[in-house]
Design a protein that fits this description.
The structure is a homotetramer. Chain A has a single domain (about 5-345), classed as Chorismate synthase AroC (Chorismate synthase, AroC fold), CATH 3.60.150.10. Chain A is about 25% helix and about 20% strand. Chain A is built from 8 helices and 18 strands. A 5-stranded antiparallel sheet of chain A has the order 1-2-3-7-4, with helices on one face. In chain A, strands 9-8-10-16-11 form a 5-stranded antiparallel sheet. Chain A has a two-stranded antiparallel sheet with strand order 5-6. The longest helix of chain A has 22 residues, at about 325-345. Chain A starts with a strand and ends in a 6-residue tail after the last helix. The interface between C and D is large, with 112 and 112 residues. Strand 11 of chain A pairs antiparallel with strand 11 of chain B.
Chain lengths: ~350, ~350, ~350, ~350
């Protein structure tokens, strides 16, 4: 199943950036969960294009339709499918990209893998696919809410500008989704400057899962952190993932890095809430690095489908920084994963 | 399947550190691959305990027995099972750890998940489980060899000491598995110093997969990098993973980070050989951060199974640095993953 | 994945009989297969309600919309999703069935499993779900066509009336889908008689898969016949499945039942084209028993949701015999399974 | 995963009839189940060769060794692996079968699938593989016992001789495992006669699962009956499976076939304890047809690996009737399946 994530809470997405629709099927949703369509739509709005000056100008309402699996406001235990029509498919001329491989994109690799590709935008490899994940993530959040589990993420660094704090109540108040209002303004300006320079910038995202009971995650291959790594690297543009103390552990010592345990909990959280692949009841914390958008308006060297050297220039509408719109996707994937592990944990004991 | 990695080349491990045996079943091995038992045993020897002054003193020959799936020197297409008896189970007294949760270990989380645990060492969460992965990885390497694909890894940093080069022919010549002979000596000394100080140190591993044809990996959830993240974070002690340029992308720009394409290949490899989740034919490169061994001989604060505060001191035999012995495990997991994606790619086109 | 069939050609259906829509996602469709929407719609028409006097009067056009996975007439290798709106949801009064368990239906078991149920018709357990399978089966047939593989099924027995021959060109010419025109008329009359009597009748279906190369199916748990059994019993109302000689083998002898092999092929086909779970190149033949429709208009004894004894009478629109409309579903499931095994066989050898 | 059955209680077998060993890994066994090795060995003894005059003369003690997953008498929640060495591999001359395809066996199909085969007996396709299933089934029975669920099976027909009753306490008292002592004697004689005639006979098995709570099984593809069909047809030699009333439904009517419901339960059980794919709390009943052993000592026509017509004669040691030794395998598969569905049902509701 190439397009499914999760085993018991299994999320399958479908759809291309310029096809008829995107959608998602959640198979394994337990019966009896209250579904709030307004909440789901709000989550969609957090990811949708055209939401601010720092994002792409493509206009999509990203209106979600629930097709199945809900009856009288509650999940039925059968597959919950949701649909999202592509409105602004923008019937423009693709001749400048149809025969050319855009650097940093999946054009070349799709051709090698499938023999040909849908050359209208990114097709299946477009970030637009993640809208379906956000819909599923919203449902996962509604499920997790029943157990007091929440997920949150924010921009920690953009274009080299680092947040010095994570005031969570500030995050949704600025277009870059940063918990440090001062730095948020600098980040916003840096993104606009990059756009003016026909270039793009990267950044980092910090995220937390709160309220996870101890015991989630499987000891060997399906460690909570292993699946977090899987989930996060499945988001296009992510090139690095850290759990807890992350890369800093490399130069630490056991006596410093071990989190002492007291009757009141762990004294520190270098582990990021996971020990031996299993949640320990502490906050699960992780961060990820997002590359600068590969779609830039500067001329670039590449080859065409005939293998000849060409210079190309991308036009169209693109985010000069992916970070702000990836924030809700990170939350969605973390919620989906946690929902899955919560169900899997039901089978660990007699 | 909590203990399986891979979909078509599916590796299932079993066994505990102090049980009768460890083992692995590879389901999905194509028929006709030549199996060289000497090569497999050599790979085991690279991971086995007691191999040098910087590793644990536990003595295990780690002799592999092939139980099934091979006939007249070739794989038959049926499950290839391998067994590894635990020899040095060291019947010592576990009373000091049976009722206490070791910091940095899975003791607490196992109890929470399963209701009780095998308190003789790490049980299923022991690094010893990875011996079974190395056996499977050796078989995966023999399979990949048919396609000209190889995997290699080395220590890049230990205790803050950084290698300045990766001379691959040097890696197996020193006990820390570093490609920089000068730095290797410093690393070795740092590990011995940590042991003397009853402490432990962490580090970084760099790895490459060579010869991968373009087209491996699936576009959405099962991106090559997503599965690499999954595979690497499934190794105990890994707290960070980077693909290609890794965290450095956060402060880069699109015009710098995009890898230009020429008729002769990519000009740079910030992508780490993966675009849109699919291999692009370039070297697949990644690195990971390994935490300092949690088993240290200094007294530590923790709680017992009754929830009371206690001070404990670990004895036994442990590696003061996990990095050198994780190197072959990284290779094994990368080889298993690549074998799986190689098979999955057989179904991408008509 | 409760709602998925297949591993490499993985079909997931969603939707309820009285919800907004039904749909299907095929994940694993290789790129490059020509998709003929007219053929798919024709297959839908073979299963749709209201097609003849012997089927239900519910009116549905069952118009299929392809949402993704096809570009310029060919599959792209990404998920192929199809949608089917429910038109005639018939907003009637469900008060007579909402609180009562219909005998022979899944009402009671759904309540026990999920805690409540969508009481408007069968919900997820309705035969209407199979429309999504027929859509997927049509796509599977288009894929199999590339390899010269075809699937066909017909009614072999209805209400005790047995076909004496299977003239395949006759099957679609009569409303009961029987290859024996004389018997077809008797079957048709028997169904109409059952309707008049407010009762229903059962029957048998015979099916064949032609052109399957030797080597499909896996030796142990995923034998071709095991998966055929799985596929056929997954169709509501099926109570028996036979492969090849079927139950007749119980009273046969090895010397009679073994199919001798000659340079020109097998002399007989008691095996039904499968040996050791793997196709042998001969016709794969099987039959199944379908129970009489549980929805009958006679009064029936049952209990209500309070556990009290009640007499109920079903109204609404139902097929007095399920057999004719299950024929295309049998073909669809056989095609989906064969497509899956065809892909799986790509990985059996180096 | 070609060699795995089950999703949450996932059983993977490995090993060939003439290799070093057979084995099984159960992944997903919940922690805390008491394991009784004597019970497991007793189950093995019910299937082992050489147990009576009507079975093969091959001598195997089939001694089970538990390798992992059990600590202090209880399951730990980690993979439970068991091993079974092949003792009597009987180093005889295989030259008469190495280059020839035995009729009714998987020789031809293995060669076509894998390119070559282990010609020493059936290899992976041997009935000997089912010994590993019986071991797993015994563990499943111990798990099910906690919930009051039991499984039983018996020979219902052999060589055309039909049991007229199923006295369950008689089943293990006669070598053919029939619940009708009179008929059992006739069956035994019929098998001995078949052996004398260098031929073999088939039969039917009847089985029940008792104590299954309502709510097990998934509505669409993973119906309880669909998985039963899968499980039963995965046993070599099975050519037909019926659930409840089975093929008799074909000539029944809705008014007769529907099982009326009363406050005390179902009045009849034509459904075989399953409605809409979900257990209804009644006894789950099914039967299967087993073909006559393909290994007979009469000369047979076949082809060699060069495709030439040859006459061959099998020697060696074979059961003249598979039915008695398949009885415990049927129980094992039913127990494994029920254990799996019991776990899956834990996730159907919030």
């Amino acid at each position: 199943m190439n397009n499914t994530f999760g085993t018991l809470f299994a999320v399958t997405t479908f759809g291309e950036s310029h096809g008829a629709a995107l959608g998602v099927v959640i198979d394994g949703m337990p019966a009896g969960v209250k579904i709030d369509p307004v909440f789901i739509q709000n989550e969609m709005d957090r990811r949708r294009p055209g939401q601010s000056a720092v994002s792409t100008a493509r206009q999509e309402s990203d209106t979600i339709e629930i097709l199945s699996g809900v009856f009288e406001g509650k999940t039925t235990g059968t597959p919950l499918a949701m649909l999202l029509r592509n409105a602004d498919q923008h019937s423009r001329d693709y001749s400048n990209i149809a025969g050319v491989y855009r650097p940093g994109h999946a054009d070349y690799t799709f051709d090698k893998k499938f023999g040909f590709r849908d050359y209208r935008g990114g097709g299946r490899s477009s970030g637009r696919e993640t809208s379906a994940r956000v819909a599923a993530g919203a449902v996962a959040k509604l499920f997790l809410k029943q157990y007091g589990i929440t997920v949150r993420a924010c921009s920690e660094e953009i274009a080299g500008i680092k947040a010095e704090k994570h005031c969570w109540e500030e995050v949704e108040k600025n277009p870059v989704r940063c918990g440090d209002p001062e730095k948020a303004k600098e980040m916003e300006q840096a993104i606009l400057d990059a756009r003016t320079a026909c270039d793009s910038v990267g950044g980092k995202i910090y995220a937390e899962i709160l309220g996870v009971p101890p015991g989630l995650g499987e000891p060997v291959f399906d460690k909570f952190d292993a699946l977090l790594g899987h989930a996060m690297f499945s988001i296009g543009g992510v090139k690095g993932v850290e759990i807890g103390a992350g890369f800093a552990v490399a130069s630490s010592r056991g006596s410093l890095n071990n989190d002492s345990i007291t009757p009141d909990g762990f004294v520190s959280n270098h582990a990021g809430g996971i020990l031996g692949g299993i949640s320990n009841g502490d906050v699960i914390s992780f961060r990820l690095a997002v590359k600068p958008t590969p779609s830039i308006y500067l001329p670039q060297k590449t080859i065409n489908t005939a293998g000849e050297s060409v210079e190309m220039q991308i036009n169209g509408r693109h985010d000069p920084c992916l970070v702000p719109r990836i924030v809700p996707v990170v939350e969605a994937m973390a919620a989906i994963l946690t929902a899955d592990l919560l169900l899997r944990a039901r089978c660990s004991k007699i």
